[in-house]
């Protein structure tokens, strides 16, 4: 089965669907610039991936993105000539969205590595929106600590300013850093983004286009600054299971650090840890996925649909 374009009214879709074989064929003959050790280093905890998956899914995606980057540069050059004025070349911005535990961090890291291997895009930066979360003290004072990851838990103005500066060609733009160990923004620590060729922005709600919570619709959305967007998708059942599995793995690793925010969970039994993880999922991650994250899926340029074993079973590419 190859690319499928719906032909009946019930099947009308803005996307063209590719199965694994037809998608992999798009990068036939392409050289994979990563080895097993590279893939293991790039994969996040609990996200099972190997070289074959990278060759099947991510290499074709990287080649497609490279075509978009090249076309964007040509358009910039033609527009500059047409306007008769020198304008700064700005980074090509790729957004990667999806639920907690779905594997979007692995996707973002793989895209960064694969795109950086191309000779004409050597500088590829990766920024996560975690750094733009409001500090825990602020969230607690606003009664939002239990809604961490929801749109209102971010400093959205700062995130918009960051992207506006990046896309205006401003050099040395900085973003705050976040620690998953301390579960908080790191005071005074910043990541500098200095005019890269490509910027990958990874986050839960980056494709959202809803209101601000006060009933008003913002004039500018974060997605207005994106050149391409990827949504990492899976069934809610699978994602919740992956979340529980990751929680159990963290209990045996990162939670053992006495300075870790979640160290209090380190001594839980398997049964207790599973119950705790499911409780957190039901209270926080599930409603965020249903209300904010999943509804933004249709706004992506490309959707990676995962199976229960973490492999991508189908790719949906928005029709031009």
Question: What does this molecule look like?
Answer:
With 320 residues, the protein is of the alpha/beta class. The chain has a single domain, classed as Rossmann fold, CATH 3.40.50. Helices cover 37% and strands 18% of the residues. The chain has 8 helices and 9 strands. The protein has helices spanning 20-25, 36-42, 51-83, 104-116, 136-141, 156-167, 236-252, 270-293, and strands at 15-19, 92-98, 124-128, 173-179, 184-193, 198-202, 228-233, 302-306, 312-318. A 7-stranded mixed sheet has the order 1-9-8-7-2-6-3. A hairpin with a 5-residue loop joins β8 (302-306) and β9. α3 (51-83) packs across α4 and α7 (236-252) crosses α8 (270-293). The chain is globular, with a radius of gyration of 20 Å. It starts with 14 loop residues before the first strand and ends with a strand. 36% of the residues are buried.
